[in-house]
């Protein structure tokens, strides 16, 4: 029973908390079933290389195709999947699905240069991650550099020693690494010296109002300079407007990703995206 609602006192098991706990439990159970029933999908979003004016790779983004509620974005279930540990089997499924898809694309003669897969702290702390990655590459006869792993700064904070060791092993195998949502974590920059990554991805919160916010313009300029100083490629996320693209190009950003180039889409649509003459982005880059 809830405690009397005195000032500063705690109320245990209020109806709202009970309700939320129930919802979480049922969502968790539903996710487990969804994984068994094959309701998850991998969508792919293009990354455009500005210098080459071509899509050089894709980011894999998980979706839940719920039989009643329709397509559910990861924002609604990834954090619960992390808390419950379900992210480990789900993340493994994503890796396997990406490997299978890369093999199929390779057989069709249209493999992208690489596919980037998101990892969370729990997956990184898992002893079997290296084995899981190796197994997927071997099973599908894929070169390690066709796989990129995206990690966030906070994911390195969780279990620094172990995480860095795991990532070093993966890098040693030839897998590419990138730092996602760069600039939004609380971590210091020193890890960039211990862990050699290939790319920095500028978080979309800095890209959003690049045209009008001088603070964000400074941050983006600084991240690009930092990346290039460390010989890393810099990718800007969440690019939606021609103005943002123009700024990023002028600042020397290497790649962009965002709705302007293409939304996350099922494999066949993502791979058939062409930026030939007539595509607005191609025209902008030529200008
Ligand atoms: P993220 O890795 O930073 O992915 C970028 C997010 O920005 C994606 O959201 C993408 O759809 C969205 N986005 C891309 N371009 C634009 C744009 O121009 N405008 C706007 N407004 N949004 C854009 P999504 O797919 O909902 O994924 C959200 C987050 O969920 C991802 O952020 C990633 O952290 C996580 N996630 C997705 N798939 C996986 C997965 O397989 N495993 C793990 N561990 N996390 C995943
Ligand atoms: Mg990502
Ligand atoms: Mg991001
Ligand atoms: Mg994110």
Automatic annotation (TrEMBL):
Residues 24-278 form the EAL domain. This is Response regulator receiver protein. It comes from Castellaniella daejeonensis. The chain holds residues 456 to 742 of 742 of the full protein.
